Amino acid sequence: MKLVLAVINDEDSHKLTEKLANAGYMATKLASTGGFLKTGNTTIFVGVQKDKVEDVINIISEQCKTNKQLSLLNPPASSIAEGFVPYPIEVTVGGATIFVLDIDQFIKI
Prior knowledge:
- With 109 residues, the protein is of the alpha+beta class.
- The protein contains two helices and six strands, in the order βαββαβββ.
- Helix 1 packs across helix 2.
- It is elongated, with a radius of gyration of 18 Å.
């Protein structure tokens, strides 16, 4: 048994969980926050048999595409010089960060 853990953009969470459910996979959604852009993420947990891992990863890949957006990245307040004006930079958002973990035991009560 494997646990597929995917950190995705909030905007992709509804369509991803819908696609996973339609394919017969049960998923658990957990709200999370990214450390770099400080934006909302969703962490999806899917427990599957080893031979189904690639199928789940393919569904995640199809639903969670990256895109570019402008962001104002501000330095920490302690290092801001007087008169500092933040400027927009282009960042890549979306996509997924996927972890596949071995599961020693699975219990559903």
